[in-house]
From TrEMBL:
Gene3D superfamilies membership: Glycogen Phosphorylase B
Location(s), subcellular: Endoplasmic reticulum
Name of this chain's protein: UDP-N-acetylglucosamine transferase subunit ALG13
Residue ranges annotated for the Glycosyl transferase family 28 C-terminal domain, each copy included: 3-160
InterPro entries for this protein: Alg13-like, Glyco_trans_28_C
Cited function: Involved in protein N-glycosylation. Essential for the second step of the dolichol-linked oligosaccharide pathway.
Length: 170
């Protein structure tokens, strides 16, 4: 099974380093995962070789693939059995709309830690699990994907009604 880790377009080195930390890998393996794919963005983590065009290695029994950016993450989201991500709203919506289990770790260095509010709200609704860097091994261990609440489909009728009203069609 595949785990996709994404940090978005910024750098979030603590998350990148945490997902290759032995306690995290042990808990992923215990849950049946055998491959971790890391989109590291502008990370400064030194993997010993450049990661622009992709890098693969094995650590603590886990196959790991690292790359900086791809034109789109949609295919990676679709192929993943679990996504671990920063708490960016675009990433969260893309993953939840696909019905994928999601663990988010807010990046506290961004805009007054705005990601934490979104992560906690969606976690309270049961759509995802919010975690911290230090709690990630336990969050993985305790994750019961069947207990996550499916994210509702978007209701585009509100937008259409608003547009019709603004254009004078109502």
């Amino acid at each position: 099974m595949r785990v996709l880790v994404t940090v978005g377009s910024t750098d979030f080195d603590p998350l990148v380093l945490t997902v290759i930390w032995q306690p995290v890998l042990v808990n992923l393996i215990a849950r049946g995962y055998d491959k971790v794919i890391i989109q590291c963005g502008n990370s400064a983590v030194d993997f010993g070789r450049p990661v622009e065009s992709g890098l693969s290695f094995r650590k603590d029994g886990m196959d790991i693939e690292v790359w900086k950016f791809k034109p789109t993450l949609q295919e990676e989201y679709s192929r993943a059995d679990l996504v671990i991500s920063h708490a960016g709203s675009g990433t969260i919506l893309d993953v939840l709309r696909l019905g994928k289990p999601l663990i988010v770790i807010p990046n506290p260095t961004l805009l007054d830690n705005h990601q934490e509010e979104l992560a906690n709200a969606l976690s309270a609704l049961g759509h995802l699990k919010a975690s911290t860097i230090l709690d990630l091994p336990e969050t993985i261990s305790d994750l019961h994907t069947s207990s996550l609440t499916p994210f509702p489909a978007p209701d585009e009728s509100n937008f259409q009604a608003l547009l019709d009203e603004e254009m004078g069609f109502m």
